[in-house]
Write a structure and sequence with these properties.
Elements lengths: L9 H17 L15 E6 L2 E6 L1 H15 L1 H6 L36 E9 L3 H8 L6 E4 L6 H10 L4 E7 L18 H12 L7 E6 L7 H14 L2 E4 L8 H8 L3 E3 L2 E2 L6 H18 L1 E6 L3 H10 L3 H5 L2 E2 L2 H9 L2
Parallel strand pairs: 3-4, 3-10, 3-11, 4-5, 5-6, 6-7, 7-8, 9-10
Antiparallel strand pairs: 1-2
Helix pairs in contact: 4-5, 6-7, 7-8
Keywords: Signal
Pfam families: Polysacc_deac_2
InterPro entries: Divergent_DAC, Glyco_hydro/deAcase_b/a-brl
Length: 336
């Protein structure tokens, strides 16, 4: 059939329209805010004997920063201007209960060297970042979110490398932000809360302990924390309180249930600059020298990983402070 001059077939018209829309989108200089419910881009990453869907790292970095800014906004504004990293949780909590002496603990020789423990939270989405943590020349613990694509593979590789693996349990926050699958909420009844927690604990292995992801609301609820600790006690797991709320009841509930526990001293990367991360790390070293030990929590930001990769190899020689496992910190606390 003869084609009339100046007229395109339908397919070409559709293609032209599509190209026009794409060019218009590319020319838009205003980048919209990523909503918490948006699906992040994903790529397939080959791993040993399996393939893992690795979500876009930048997406989770921005959500994590958004959560901290929103959940801590009110308390950060009230923090004193000179407070470290404007972290309102650095101030001591109301008296934390003394550890019970009858808990079974590992027996260690007397230890005089100041020590720090390090946990990296929010793992399970990125296989490459998780593997960088496993490769660190120190017993840095991996806190892995349940029902994430790389959870089991990272847990298995960490165990082979002798690294501690804990469940990073999503808990309801005070800013009404989404916390992801497997979350525990204050309006759950006991059966639902325990069922959800048990499913998360069964999601990957091995797991030596648990710490909270967000959780400013739930950790302030004594009844809910009692239910959590009773599950952990039955499984012989320890608990690490991330201290996202100054009103946390986690330590009291853990003590009542006979669960060994620690509380976070320093957030490493509230600000993602080398200077801020270094200041937080130095603060942790100062605490360790003063009180014998300190517990740091960081996140898998590129800046954090680069800092730890540079800092940890010569830490004990340069600073006289060593990185120890969470189990070693617990043994120090509960040593008779």
């Amino acid at each position: 059939m003869r084609r009339l001059p100046g007229r395109w077939p339908a397919a070409r018209l559709l293609m032209a329209a599509w190209l026009t829309l794409m060019l218009a989108a590319c020319g838009d200089s205003d980048e919209p805010e990523v909503p918490a419910s948006a699906e992040p881009p994903a790529v397939e990453v080959a791993g040993p004997a399996t393939a893992v869907i690795q979500q876009d790292d930048a997406y989770y970095d921005e959500l994590r920063a958004r959560w901290f800014a929103l959940e801590h906004a009110e308390r950060s504004a009230a923090a004193s201007p000179g407070s470290h990293n404007a972290d309102p949780e650095q101030a001591p909590l109301s008296a934390e209960p003394e550890p019970v002496s009858e808990l079974p603990v590992a027996v260690l020789e007397p230890e005089s060297t100041p020590a720090i423990g390090i946990i990296i939270d929010d793992l399970g989405h990125s296989l490459s970042r998780g593997r960088r943590i496993i490769a660190l020349p120190a017993p840095v613990a991996l806190a892995i979110l349940p029902h994430t694509q790389a959870a089991q593979l990272l847990a298995s590789e960490a165990a082979v490398a002798g690294k501690t693996v804990i469940l990073h349990q999503p808990m309801e926050n005070g800013a009404a932000l989404a916390i992801g699958p497997g979350g525990l909420y204050a309006d759950m009844d006991r059966a639902k809360l325990e069922q959800t927690l048990q499913a998360n604990l069964n999601n990957f292995v091995p797991i030596q302990g648990v710490n909270n992801h967000m959780g400013s609301r739930l950790t302030s609820d004594r009844q809910a924390m009692d239910w959590v600790m009773q599950v952990l006690a039955a499984r012989g797991l320890f608990f690490i309180d991330s201290r996202t709320s100054a009103a946390t009841q986690a330590a009291f509930a853990a003590e009542a249930a006979g669960v060994r526990h620690l509380s976070r001293d320093v957030f490493l990367d509230n600000e993602r600059t080398f200077e801020a991360i270094d200041a937080a790390f130095q603060h942790a070293l100062t605490l360790a020298r003063k009180q014998g030990s300190a517990l740091i929590i960081g996140h898998p930001y590129p800046q954090t990983l680069e800092y730890l990769e540079q800092r940890l190899p010569e830490l004990q020689r340069e600073e006289g402070v060593k990185v120890v496992s969470l189990e070693a910190l617990l043994a120090r606390k509960y040593r008779n």
